[in-house]
Amino acid sequence: MSESLGFGQCSKIEKSDISHVWEKVTVPLGERSYDILIGPGLLLEVPSRLKEVYDGPGPFVITDSNVRDFIGEDFIRFLRDEGFKDAKILSFEAGERSKNIETVIKLARELVNIGADRTSLLLALGGGVVGDICGFLASIYMRGIPFIQLPTTLLAQVDSSVGGKTGVDIPEGKNLIGTFAQPRAVYADIGTLTSLSQAEIRNGISEIVKYGMIKDEGLFTLLEEKWWDVLNLEPHVTASVVKRSCEIKAEVVSKDEREGGYRRILNFGHTIGHAVEAASNYTIPHGEAVAMGMVAVGKISVGRSLLSKKAYQRLVELLNRFGLPVDIPKEIRPEEVLLNIKKDKKVKRGKVNFVLSKGIGETVIVDDVTDEEVLRAI
Ligand SMILES: NC(=O)c1ccc[n+]([C@@H]2O[C@H](COP(=O)([O-])OP(=O)(O)OC[C@H]3O[C@@H](n4cnc5c(N)ncnc54)[C@H](O)[C@@H]3O)[C@@H](O)[C@H]2O)c1
To answer: Using a 6 Å cutoff on CB, does residue 2 contact ligand 1?
Structure first.
């Protein structure tokens, strides 16, 4: 197998008819660096690019039951047409409930039974659940084999496929078992997003708003100006916001791969968001909970005179435009949210880190937010 599965040297991208809307971002991590390619129609290109660098068993596509029906079977055909006669697809029931160790073990056993060895390659075709499961499986199967991310939800394209966090849930909490394992490449085919529900699109948009808030007022302004195109997945606008989001995530991850400190800025809105999600028994979707969380930390930031009321209002208006909620529903008890915040796995020595906003595009991490400030904000 070639050392570079990132296909970084491949020049076909320039030759393709649709390459003018393809974008490339590199995640600079030394010898584990990889490229993220973004654009419509990329999935069609994957088999031929793979052919140039991979001649091991399979490859083995890991996906969920929905994506298998939507795209999975076609994708296997593309692989076989390109000469990968042994390409196989393994799937599990779609949904967060499948993100557990039992699914990983079941997939590992299936891999053994169909002949996957230490030289095999896994392809994660799907949303964040598939990416997290496949990445985790790849990182432990026969002590680690390579994998490529082929994200098919907006959330996976702007967030979960990049950065190398993998893992599964246990009854005690989400993502409590996992590894850091970087993919060899990411192919974000924005054409696959057209079958997503509006709710799934909004889930991803919430994370894009987050990137604007933490790092890039230009991205935030673009979202304000082109919100309609973003919601309707206009290809050029989609490619450019996915690219900018990946650039920001790549930059943060390359400076702090294992979340020693700086990477925490990616948790903007998530500390309260996760607590709200859990308090709702996961009936509130992740993106909506993060939107509520961003507004709540926005309020705390205004209360500390870090963020202007005008900037806070821009955040609220932008989320409204996207149909994302800004208020935590009355049924959610603030005391329970507070309790969940303190149970978060990121709490260190009893101190909760909060990412506050110092203006659109700027953050500060503090650990002295009081219970009263949180309760007032939620
Ligand atoms: N590893 C990370 O850094 C990271 C970051 C953020 C979130 N996550 C994880 O990501 C997961 C959430 O990801 P998600 O929102 O993509 O959820 P998901 O993977 O469950 O996908 C959402 C739904 O969309 C379906 N779907 C996928 N692609 C589709 C398509 N093109 N058309 C129609 N339907 C499609 C899926 O089958 C599923 O039903 C959570 O488990 C979360 O913990 C991980």
So the answer is: no
* 259 Cβ inside 6 Å of ligand 1: no
Domains of the chain: which residue ranges? 12-195, 198-230+259-377
**Beta-strand pair 60-64/23-27:** unpaired
Looking from the CA of residue 129, the nearest atom of ligand 1 is 19
Distance 15 CA to ligand 1 centre (A): 32
Question: Is the CB of 196 within 6 Å of ligand 1?
Answer: yes
**Ligand 1 pocket, 267 CB below 6 A?**
no
* Structure confidence by residue, pLDDT tens digits, 192-250: 999 999 999 999 999 999 999 999 999 999 999 999 999 999 999 999 999 999 999 99
How confident is the model over 252-289, as pLDDT tens digits? Answer: 999 999 988 899 999 999 999 999 999 999 999 999 99
- Residue whose CB lies within 8 A of the most ligand 1 atoms, among 99, 160, 187, 201, for a mutation test: 160
Helices (H), the chain: 12-15, 42-53, 65-67, 73-81, 101-113, 128-140, 154-155, 198-215, 217-225, 227-231, 235-255, 270-279, 286-303, 309-321, 334-343, 371-377
May I ask the CATH architecture of the domain 198-230+259-377? Up-down Bundle (1.20)
Q: Quickly name the fold that domain 12-195 has.
A: Rossmann fold (3.40.50)
